[in-house]
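Figure 6 in text form: structure in, sequence out.
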């Protein structure tokens, strides 16, 4: 690579929501920004999480200077344990972000790593890179934007942000500093695009607090259960303050809610009197008006506390008619069905439910159009690459930038694996590296082309058929009747006739061949082919076929 060029590689978070990971490279030095995960859809059966393919980083591990974390959400730190198992690289982030990483790393006690906490306005020198950390508002405390000075100019990476004029911690996004950096000259802006399709401004977090206060005040005699994101510490703080105001004790439930509250309390990011906290096991013995329960499950996650409450399967607490459940979150795209299933189940149990369609009980942590315009106007970049969004978000963000005077030729739309070269007066795509998805489940880390995944998809879509045949290898004859088991292939009322016809098909196909001395593997292959054709003609399905041949 030429000395006067900066290479930017996108390993995640572009053309998709989640698993954010971007690399900046100058000569033989690389800094990584974020290492996130995403969650699988229905096309990935049995997969727990999805992380970026880190092949490029592993191949260039000698060049890597640091991992810079913008904040502590899973789509930005979820892949850190997997990265640290492959690379010995120091991590920089806010105290809360690193505390959440530390909590994750407890599951990997053998992995040693170095974590260095930074604060807004700190400047970090890493070889050819000089990184300034800038305070931004988001739905988690300790969020940072990055101003990265390189030999070809300054790159501003916004991380996830919003412009909240009433921040809970009293510290706004540092607009003055962003303006100062913009005046000095910014070569490239990498700006998040999650809410670019929403006009106007995002609602202030304090507005949510006011709405929650009004609801809780007006339901003085109800037992109140609030489901929200465990990482939204500012939301948790407001809920706890409101509970204390109306003399309610607080109970936490859900592992992440308990873990994050403990971490945040230890760091001073969350402030509450431990005497106001009660164990969830004691809640049923308290008067309804004396308790507020904070829980996970705002996204209808199958194993979350709220989902189990809705199903009547939560041992410590049963939903009843005097319960008011507040979902202080909006469904993440793709989770709508799960969320509304939980809401319906809660209503059926007699509870009342308030969610974002009924009241202002949630606000996004991401900038809407007017806030994005403000960021562009302050930073005034020469070149722009929209990040953190699906293609429609990136395209809309390009159009937004162009309404502010940005030349469309200076905007580049990235995709996974793309490498971009930034010079003093140019930006261009220069190729692609190996990138994409790695799939993580209890078995370890796999990829999209794995036999395991293909087999899971086949089982989930078309079922399985097991055929057992006993053959006299000397006489070349079938002994007894074939044995057939199917799951997910035919309906119960068709099963008997299907099995009989399948047996007849197997016997007829075997009679066509001289089986004396034939290897079992050849018989199995013939069986598999014939029964597969029979099933497809009968059902138009291609189930997994397992054949077992025993010889006498």
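Output sequence:
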């Amino acid at each position: 690579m030429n000395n006067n060029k900066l290479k930017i590689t996108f390993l995640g978070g572009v053309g998709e929501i989640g698993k954010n990971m971007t690399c900046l490279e100058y000569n033989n030095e690389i800094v990584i920004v974020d290492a996130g995960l995403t969650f699988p859809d229905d096309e990935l059966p049995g997969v727990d999480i999805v992380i970026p393919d880190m092949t490029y980083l592993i191949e260039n591990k000698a060049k890597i200077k640091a991992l810079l974390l913008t904040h502590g959400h899973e789509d930005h730190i979820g892949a850190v344990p997997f990265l640290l198992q492959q690379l010995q690289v120091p991590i920089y982030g806010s105290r809360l972000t690193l505390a959440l990483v530390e909590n994750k790393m407890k599951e990997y006690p053998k992995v040693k790593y170095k974590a260095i906490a930074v604060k807004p306005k700190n400047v970090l020198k890493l070889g050819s890179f000089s990184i300034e950390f800038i305070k931004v508002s988001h739905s988690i405390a300790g969020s940072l934007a990055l101003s990265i000075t390189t030999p070809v100019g300054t790159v501003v990476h916004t991380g996830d942000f919003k412009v909240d004029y009433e921040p809970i911690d009293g510290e706004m996004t540092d607009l003055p500093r962003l303006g100062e950096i913009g005046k000095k000259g910014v070569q490239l802006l990498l700006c998040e695009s999650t809410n670019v399709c929403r006009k106007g401004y995002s609602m202030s977090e304090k507005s949510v607090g006011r709405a929650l206060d009004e609801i809780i005040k007006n339901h003085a005699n109800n037992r109140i259960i609030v489901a929200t994101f465990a990482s939204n510490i500012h939301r948790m703080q407001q809920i706890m303050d409101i509970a204390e105001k109306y003399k309610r004790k607080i109970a936490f439930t859900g592992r992440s809610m308990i873990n994050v509250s403990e971490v945040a309390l230890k760091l001073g990011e969350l402030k509450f009197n431990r005497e106001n906290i009660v164990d969830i096991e004691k809640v049923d013995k308290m008067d309804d008006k004396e308790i507020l329960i904070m829980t996970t499950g705002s996204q209808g996650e199958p194993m979350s506390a709220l989902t189990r409450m809705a199903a009547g399967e939560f041992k410590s607490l049963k939903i009843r008619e005097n319960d008011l459940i507040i979902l202080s979150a909006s469904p993440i795209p793709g989770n709508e069905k799960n969320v509304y299933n939980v809401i319906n189940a809660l209503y059926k149990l007699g509870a009342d439910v308030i969610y974002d369609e009924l009241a202002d009980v949630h606000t996004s942590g991401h900038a809407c159009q007017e806030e994005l315009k403000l960021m562009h106007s302050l930073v005034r970049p020469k070149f722009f690459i929209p990040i953190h969004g699906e293609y429609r978000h990136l395209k809309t963000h390009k159009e937004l930038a162009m309404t502010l005077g940005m030349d469309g030729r200076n905007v580049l739309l990235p995709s996974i694996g793309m490498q971009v070269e930034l010079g003093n007066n140019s930006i261009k795509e220069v190729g692609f590296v190996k990138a994409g998805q790695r799939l993580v489940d209890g078995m370890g880390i796999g990829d999209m082309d794995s036999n395991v995944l293909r087999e899971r998809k086949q089982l989930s879509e078309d079922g399985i058929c097991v055929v057992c045949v006993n053959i006299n290898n000397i006489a070349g004859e079938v002994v007894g009747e074939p044995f057939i088991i199917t799951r997910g292939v035919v309906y119960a009322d068709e099963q008997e006739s299907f099995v009989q016809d399948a047996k007849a098909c197997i016997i007829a196909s075997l009679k066509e061949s001289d089986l004396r001395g034939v290897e079992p593997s050849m018989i199995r292959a013939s069986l598999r082919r014939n029964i597969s054709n029979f099933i497809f003609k009968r059902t138009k399905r291609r189930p997994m076929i397992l054949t077992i041949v025993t010889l006498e």
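Caption detail: The radius of gyration is 29 Å.
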